[in-house]
Amino acid sequence: MPSKRKAAKKEIQPEKSAQEEHPRVEESEAKPVTQVVEVVEEEIVPSAEVAPSQLETLEENEVVENKSDVMDAAKEEVRKEMVDELFDEPNAPVLPEISVHKKSAVNPLIMWVLIVLVVAGITGGGLYIIIQKSALPLPFLAAEPTPTPMPTPTPTPMPAKREDISIQVLNGGGTPGAAGKMKKLLEEKGYTVADTGNTDEYTYEKTEILVKPGKEAYIALLEEDLKDAYTLGSTSATLSSDGSYDAQVIVGKE
Predict the structure, then answer these.
(1) Residue 171: strand, helix, or coil
(2) Cβ–Cβ under 8 Å, residues 6 and 39
(3) Where are the alpha helices (DSSP H) in the chain?
(4) Residue 169: CATH number of its domain
(5) Alpha-carbon gap, residue 167 to 192, rounded angstroms
(6) pLDDT tens digit string along 79-108?
(7) Domain around 174
(8) Which tens digit of pLDDT belongs to each residue from 156-171?
(9) Rg of the chain taking only CA atoms, in angstroms
(10) Which of 235, 242, 246, 178 lies closest to 212, judged by CA?
(11) Interatomic CA distance for residues 238 and 90, integer angstroms
(12) Residue range 118-159, pLDDT digits in tens
């Protein structure tokens, strides 16, 4: 392919030195420098006909060049990352998270006082409800009045009177006239002697007194009247209640 070249001259001005920025430094006179730059212009004269194989070759060359550019860009990116990693500061160590537990501002004593008050309130309320319920009238539980048994009046014993009893006098010692002698003494004291007689056997050494049940008061009265004249033996309230006499006096051998 024919090519044409043109020569051109370009005048390049020298750069200002750092002395121009400071007024205190004397400016030096810069001499112009002439540099020759050669510019080459190429003319590409396409041929009249291009073969299809040449077109495919050109397209493959363009694809290869594009792939090469992409690979170069990727390599450049990797290089930059490696440089950045080298100059990056090491990561700071991860410190464990420390949790701070704040103490409750509530005084434990106050908390216990509140608990005691709550429990006392609940207990008091429960007792109040129970008392109120127990005070309500319950008709189905009404107790029927129980009749109080009347005490049976105990008869006051009447003072023993000598004339109120009838006495039988028996001779139990075998001494003749002993029954008559006892009868006379008793009648002198005020007793009523209804009968005299003898026992089946004369085995009584001392004088004995027998009365019916319920007539015990006369025992003491007879003892009082006979103790000075006779030696008294046993006394009892074993006389048959069906008998004709209230009392029986058996005279002993004395």
Answers:
(1) strand
(2) yes
(3) 52-87, 108-135, 178-189, 217-226
(4) 3.30.70.2390
(5) 6
(6) 777 767 666 555 555 566 666 555 555 578
(7) 162-251
(8) 666 788 999 999 999 9
(9) 80
(10) 246
(11) 133
(12) 888 888 888 878 887 766 555 545 566 777 777 777 666 667
Rounded to the nearest 5°, which phi and psi values hold at 61?
Answer: -60, -40
The model carries a pTM of 0.40
Q: State residue 121's pLDDT score.
A: 86
* Structural domain count of the chain: 1
Residue labelled with tokens 């043109």: 6
Q: Is position 131 within any domain?
A: no
Please answer whether residues 228 and 201 qualify as being in contact, where contact means their C-beta atoms are separated by less than 8 angstroms: no
* Residues whose CB falls within 8 Å of the CB of residue 170, separated by 6 or more in sequence, listed in order: 179, 196, 197, 198, 199, 248, 249, 250, 251
Find out whether 214 and 240 touch, Cβ atoms under 8 Å: no
> Which residue bears the tokens 């299809």?
52
Residue type, 70: V
Judge whether 167 and 251 are in contact, CB under 8 Å.
no
Work out the widest C-alpha separation in the chain, in whole angstroms: 212
Length of the chain, please?
254
The residue assigned the tokens 């085995």 is 203
The CA-atom distances, in angstroms, between 50 and each of 46, 53, 55, 127, 254 are 8, 8, 7, 118, 196
